[in-house]
# Entry
Amino acid sequence: MASVLRHSSRLGIRATCLALPRSRNAYATAAPYFNNEPSQPSVMTSIPGPVSKKAIEELDSVFDTRSLNVICDYEKSVGNYLADMDGNLCIALNSNPYSQIASIPVGYNNPHLIATMSSKEAVNTLVNRPALGNFPPGYWASLLKTGILAVAPKGLDQVFTAMAGSDAIETSYKAAFIYRRRIERGEGVSFTPQEIESVMKNQTPGSPELAIMSFKKAFHGRLFGSLSTTRSKPVHKLDIPSFNWPHASFPQLKYPLEENIQANKMEEERCLAEVEDVINSWYCPIAAVVVEPIQSEGGDNHASPAFFQGLRELTQREGILFIVDEVQTGVGATGKFWAHEHWNLKSPPDMVTFSKKAQTAGYYFGNPMLRPNLPYRQFNTWMGDPARAILFRAIIQEIVRHDLVKNTAETGDYLYRELEKLSSKFPERIQNLRGKNRGTFIAFDTPERDAFLKKMKTFGINIGGSGETAVRLRPMLVFQKHHG
# Structure
């Protein structure tokens, strides 16, 4: 990236403020993970180019292409680089599209993943896809223990597997509601005839008035329950009926953090007080509070460990479940395997959702009462995908073998330090730099953001945005200093 960005006169909106200085010792700390990676991006045509435009036209006749970024050539993609149909090679500094919306952790065409998914075990699950709730394979328990559960957050030793991030969130909400009514009803108490009759009419008491609480600018998915807690962009929610569920303010911190300690402390205390007030004043009981460790789509908004510690203490005091949505932040992206590890909580969250870089999905939990008291209450045909669980296990093996969480922490520290220097030099262009000590989950605000992002793509460098003015970095775990 730096070799391209050095051409400052060619970028009319000062995109060169992101050029990270090279030095003789800058990249001497680690060998590359992909020896066949290109040395730099290569852009030979417009993006999209003529071949891609023709492919888009063909696709558009049968599929909605309005959100399309690139028509990809996955066979020619490698490591941190994605090839398109015109032969352009772009490097991924962001999630969308070049890291498949932050879901590619260990590089394109990773040899270990290819070998794993070519194995007899993987082929068997693909051809004979099990309906896990009814017909799980004999190796399912072993696969969970050696894969998904091998990296379970501390204190959470069970998992409900799912198909995608929104599905994981949706089922975690169901678990919260079932748990709430189970506690209220009393263990061993059967459903009443009134509950059984009324629920078929979507009426109380069988269909109770309960809520999930989220935060302003949150993003938790696009299904009906998850969408009712998503508050990042109107386009996601317009015309869709939603549940009347509450939200509270997420801290809007001032930067640099070191110069705004007292103001930020007051802001977080204000938000916690608002959460407590909403819990105590909402028209119906709140079964759970859901929160992202970093509000990703809503503008890359951060909060301190103290805020999340306070939130955990508040939910425990009020008898409300605490769901941490790690769909975007999980699997090493913040310099720890799970972002909430940065918080040093006295007790773990009640549920932690995951997807994206895991290549599978679900939620972790520890309390056995979160397992429904009857079968088929938390159920669908597939209940996840063993092939994707096999892939996640292989991803975990790569992460451990190459110590990629440590790499992400070190690479993120390097990128943050260099951006911090540039923000001092170009304060009007790099504002509110955030993500210190959070791996490569780094962002800043800049004027003319969209024009800047568009210009960068012409150099084969994908840097994306979130919120209204934020520029965010979302590289893979195999992104190293020499890529910067």
Remarks:
- The chain has two domains: 2-104+448-483, 121-400.
- The domain at 121-400 is CATH 3.40.640.10 (Aspartate Aminotransferase; domain 2).
- Residues 1-28 have pLDDT under 50 and may be disordered.
- The longest strand covers residues 72-78.
